Amino acid sequence: MKRLIAGAAALAAAGLGMARWAAARGRTPVPAKDPLAAGRWLGVTINRPPEEVAPGERLPEPLTRVDAEVRMNPAPGGRGTELYARPRERTARAEGALTRLRGEDSRTAVRTALREAKSLLETGDVLRSDEEVATTRPTLPGKVLDLALGRASEGGRL
Prior knowledge:
- This protein is an alpha+beta fold.
- The protein has helices spanning 2-25, 50-53, 61-64, 93-102, 106-123, 140-150, and strands spanning 42-46, 68-74, 81-87.
- Helices cover 45% and strands 12% of the residues.
- A 3-stranded antiparallel sheet has the order 1-3-2, with helices on one face.
- Strand 2 and strand 3 form a beta hairpin.
């Protein structure tokens, strides 16, 4: 009986794999990474109306600290405000990788400012992860965790 159930599960998994393969054959290939990606807009949706996001055309404080172009649109369906920003200076593709490793990428600063502005407008405070993780001795996993927490606001998910 167990062999029958295992065989049925293997057959179902093979059928699912074939179905996914067949569906993927009709798709167009994903284009290569855009070399002009540094000029793209970064955006967040803030759960506040536009008049609360930028009262009197004044930008939220985190965005005034970075040199960035900023635009605002009402979010679809009346669900707040879409806030977009991109750095005024554009780094070359080769320089971008090096500046990201050193933590000096202008897109990282703009991304962090957008996240802080969203947090500030929605909660009234800039939310941060716990910087002090108490351990009895420094270990390799602890160092990896410290590195991840230190770079968490720069982008991506943790």
